[in-house]
Amino acid sequence: MSDATAAQERFASSPIVDRPPLAWPGGARVALWVVPNIEHYEYLPQKIGVRDPWPRMPHPDVLGYGLRDYGNRVGLWRMIDVLDRHRIRCTVSLSLSVLQMYPEILAAMEARRWEYMSHGLYNTRYHWGWSIEDERAAIAECQAIHQQLTGRRMAGWFSPAVSNTLNTPDLVAEAGFRYYCDFYHDDQPFPVNTRTGKLISLPYTMEINDAIAWRRGDDGEDFARMVRDEFDTLHADGAVHGRVMCIALHPFIMGQPHNIRHLDAALRHVLAHPDVWVATGEEIADWYIANHQPRLEAHLAGSRPALPRLA
Q1: Number of structural domains found in the chain
Q2: Is the pLDDT of residue 5 over 60?
Q3: Among 165, 231, 256, 261, which residue has the fewest nearby CB atoms (within 10 Å)?
Q4: 106 within 8 A of 51, measured Cβ to Cβ
């Protein structure tokens, strides 16, 4: 099986400029979702063989652990102040163990009606190489913890540390999730084929993501400039084809004292525009499924790929 064939079993090839125009509620050009990654990194993670969770050995890596623990102890609360100031209801990329281990964080998120998207149990337990049975059990455990502690079911899935397998979309759909964030290939939601029907790929980002910027050596000011530049382009594009913009954050990075003002400034720039729909992942996915997916699928059913042009 070729790479192209394998990919197209999951999703059709579709240039965005050829699709039916997508307009968000109220004529918004951009659907914005802000995604804090609130995670737990184990102090003594299990040895799983594929990749060591901590770059410094032997364990414990107190430098790596301490930085990330700062996010839950300090950075998150500084970030919450900024997000409250801008009245943003977030979708949390959540290590489900956080709900069990940090009751103060759960209470703060519940008070703000934040949505939780599963990011696995711990961000140090990767799914690479897992059997179908083991991965199915891990996905079910996350859904069960959420149900027990909130009384709700989660709509979205994003594999821990992006450690998805070939089976993940099928298992996520089987478990009742409606949207999926392990693909980063589009500016719009897009249907994903699974064994139990359709799943919606919702644009998460590895570009407007403070963790990736941090690893590249960018600082908070660099990240804020990236947010502004990304938004300005998507806002212009959205005049015809509505776009999704995700801002992916980590409290241990943008919650730092030297970075927080840059997050505040970036959000102020984006939200100064009236034609932005600030939504949760679930709201974006459900609106798309109900209002646009039928049009897209009719378009895809009637389209025929052009033959390659020979030189």
Answers
A1: 1
A2: no
A3: 261
A4: no
Residue 310 falls within a domain, yes or no?
Answer: no
| Distance in Å from the first CA to the final CA of the chain | 26
**pLDDT at res. 307:** 39
Residue with tokens 């069960």: 144
Is residue 7 predicted with pLDDT exceeding 80? no
Question: Which residues lie closer than 8 Å to 285 by C-beta, 6 or more apart?
Answer: 155, 156, 178, 179, 189, 200, 202
Residue 8 lies inside a defined structural domain of this protein: no
Q: List % helix, strand, coil for the chain (3-state, nearest 5).
A: 45, 15, 40
Residue 162 sits in which domain range? 16-302
82 in a domain, yes or no? yes
CATH number at residue 216: 3.20.20.370
DSSP H helices, the chain, are 3-10, 62-70, 76-85, 97-101, 103-111, 132-150, 168-174, 210-215, 220-237, 251-254, 260-271, 281-291, 293-302
